[in-house]
Amino acid sequence: MVCYRMTKLIQMGGSYRGYATATVDDEDWDSISQLSWHIVRKGGGNLYAQNSYSWGRARGVYMHRMICRPPPRLEVHHLNENTLYNTRSNLISVTTLQHRALHRSRHVVSLSTGQFLAVIGKQFLELFPTREAAEVALLEAWALHVASVLS
After folding, report:
1. What pTM value is reported for the model?
2. How far apart are the C-alpha atoms of 46 and 92, rounded to whole Å?
3. Which of 33, 46, 84, 95 is most buried (most C-beta within 10 Å)?
4. Cα torsion at 130, 132, 134, 135 (round to 10°)?
5. Cα–Cα distance, 109 to 116 (Å, whole number)
6. Please, which residues have CB within 8 angstroms of residue 134's CB and are 6 or more apart in sequence?
7. What is the pLDDT of residues 105-114, one digit of tens each?
8. What is the CATH number of domain 7-94?
9. Is residue 31 within a helix (H) or strand (E), and if so which, with residue range?
10. Closest CA relative to residue 77, chosen from 143, 26, 18, 150
11. Digit-coded pLDDT (tens) for 85-121
């Protein structure tokens, strides 16, 4: 049986007003919705929700960090890689090294021979006769990679 958590959308202000929302769990809605949120572009062009609430600091706080509350020196990773999807089930605290490993590039390359190559980072998995076969192998290899990074 699959259980689904209820989520709500938080409207972003600033230049993204009316265009961008962040998703949070119902249980976080009350505390998160009382603050004013805007979008910032960070590392690699990803969009993050940030407010001006500072927890005693001079800078704003990211929504995903406010929800996940990682211990000092740990980072927060979005499991589905959507940086505006800030549900508890999508956020995990990781070390910097784990975070880098989780963001290794992965893709399928079409070769002039008509074959397809599955690639994770700089590691070539193997050649496949179809794009679909390469994508399946890539997903399986990526799942193993994520499990090994987080174990």
Report:
1. 0.75
2. 17
3. 84
4. 160
5. 6
6. 108, 116, 117, 118, 125, 128
7. 888 888 888 9
8. 3.90.75
9. helix 26-33
10. 150
11. 999 999 999 999 888 888 878 888 888 889 998 888 7
* Residue whose entry in the numeric block shows the structure tokens 């996940």: 68
The C-alpha atoms of residue 83 and residue 110 are separated, in whole angstroms, by 29
CA count, 13 A, side-chain hemisphere, 114: 1
Q: Is the dihedral of CA 27, 48, 20, 142 positive or negative?
A: negative
| 80-84-85 Cα angle (round to 5) | 50
Contact 150, 98 (CB under 8 A): yes
Q: In the block, which residue shows the tokens 């940030």?
A: 50
* Cβ contact 125:131 at 8 Å: no
Question: In the structure encoding, which two tokens stand for residue 100, read together?
Answer: 């880098």
Q: How far is CA 20 from the centre of its chain?
A: 16
- CA gap 58, 40 in Å, rounded: 16
Length of the chain: 151
